[in-house]
Design brief:
Blueprint: E1 25-26, H1 35-48, H2 52-64, H3 68-78, E2 80-81
Parallel strand pairs: 1-2
Length: 82
Amino acid sequence: MKRDEKSTSTRRDGGHVPFGPNRPRCRLSHADADVFAIMGAAQRALRDAGDHAAARAFVQRAFRCRSYDEVLALLVEYVDPY
């Protein structure tokens, strides 16, 4: 499969590949201790990378998480936080 420069880690069928090599970088700061700010930063990074489907899937999955730690674990599946 050939990838263009804007695509992130997706399969041919359009599904998300967890921990894929082309995860977009997502800057998090100490001010991002709020779970909703973290979700927004990850969603923005995915959208900026052109992966709107992954951004939507991340938010849907994040709202199903039961703890802050689960959201952080999910975050690293989709983006490369720094």
